[in-house]
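Follow-up to my earlier ticket, as requested here are the two runs.
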Amino acid sequence: MIISLKKIILKFVFKQMVMKNLFFYVAAIFIVVQCSSSSEENISKEDSPTKEIKKIILEEQVAWTTGDAKAYSAHFDENGLFTNVFGSSFTGYTEFLTRHEQLFKGIFKGSVMKQSVTTLKIYKDVAVVETITRISGFSNDEHLAGIYIDEKGFLNTRLLQVLRKQGKSWKIIAYHNVDIKKGVIIP
């Protein structure tokens, strides 16, 4: 049975509506609109592991844009490794969740994140996925010192995630994010 990505997003939107948070509702609707039926059709034509990984990427976008750290961390492994754009490294689900709770309450509160998959390799029970992320609508102040923000105010990153199949689900075992510096061509 093919799971509809739009149905998953709309369930999430409904949950946010119940919580009466209009901003999150509007942001999630924006993501649904961005996920046109053609992209859903493309995903439905792909093999199951590819669909599963792309679904995780889409869920990350929705969770980020709605500021939901728990949902953003849902696929992170209990012992996963995490390196952020500042080069700080953390280990484990709890650290990953805590950092994103801080980000979504602080500098990235109200921001919108889009991801474009540039590379997706699947090897039996391991997947490597690289995305270009584009974050907008954040507070560009001293907290981002040393991080390149482009002339349009976007933070662009290269996010490399390594996932391992555990039972029926994929878990992120490594998450490495780096900002794309001025002069580097974004694919």
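Run two:
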Amino acid sequence: MEALTPKEKAPEAGIGIEKFLQGKVMLITGATGFLGKVLVEKILRTVPSVGKMYLLLRAKDKGAARERLKLEFLEAELFKCLKQIYGEGYEAFMMTYVTRPGRIMEDIISIANCMENEVLNSNKSLGKLLPAMILENEMKLVAVCKKNYSDASIVAEKLSELGLQRANKFGWPNTYMFVKAIGEMVIDNMREDVPVIKMRPTIVESTYKEPFPGWIEGHKAMDPLISYNGQGKLTGFIGTVNNVLDVVPVDMVVNASLAAMAMHGVTTKADINIYHVASSVSLPLALQDLFEVYFYEHFKMWPCVDARGKPINVQKLKIITSMEEFDAHLLREATMSTSSSEMVERRKFMEKAKYLAKCYQPFTTYPYRFGMNNTETLWECMSEDEKKKFGFDLKSIHWKHYIINIHIPGLRKHVMKEKCTSKL
């Protein structure tokens, strides 16, 4: 990647993000995911003159695809700002720019069928790096299992275990990150002379500002810890006192992605351009502040309630530095239960907590830091108007306010489905 300098784009003129997006036809995979939905909403709200968006939806037929489109987009709360803007014409507007299900499905399927073997066999470097990965044979084995074995739950569990073992073998803490790395290698090998942008966000959480603060869908990385702490179940967790958790709001990830698209989308250079969207260097979020201050202060002001409607008394989430100490902590908590039924529940929760600790340990105990040099240079290339419309200045985040008054209330409203009085 060639170094990007602000001189390449005059700050007064900016990058030209809106101009670049006007009239563009886009194929968006993963559009029903958390990040994908925020991307679709942002483009439609900010650049209504975009050409078309083709969204790939997994569904058994066109009817099911239309129903999913309606549920995931047209009726989703995330799109309420667009509903307010277009009123009765909202659905017509959406269907104008989001193409009808199935319109290009045949072309996509034919491309997928033709490219399947090429994708699997073309990456020579991947084969050298991962000699144990004979994908074609594994696909055949999976097909045989599907045909001759009926207990899908056991098959899924074993595949999950094997996938994690393989990821660990090649230095990755989980299969999610492992597959991301494989995807990057496949793209590197197959792109030929096509310019490529790689966006690498860290822990993506709820919206900071757009389209409104606190929107989130499903539990993200730090959210199980928040939920269990607020319910009084989790009072300590594995971590290192001086460590940070690298969190970024989803709307800033989307804005940075659009800016990068506009910056490199008009070039003829066949470069690979990499942008980290991360906070660990520019504005570190201290693990100790997060666990022992922000979570605690929120739930002290706005406690969750138990089955009887009584406020739950929370404790500060203590940082525990070893797995042995964490196991002992969980056992002490379980034996302090006041009834046999509560002890049984505590014992069950112990297994969940141990599993979470195993998953989170690489991120809460290791001092990772991700630099943002390219992303900060991209920011400098933007005009003042673009910075307002497509802001991703992570240094502007007020972590205490974001966690206490935006993120946790958003999690409780949109995911935990609570009717609480906490701020947003």
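The only thing I checked on run two: Residues 192-415 form one domain. Let me know what else you need.
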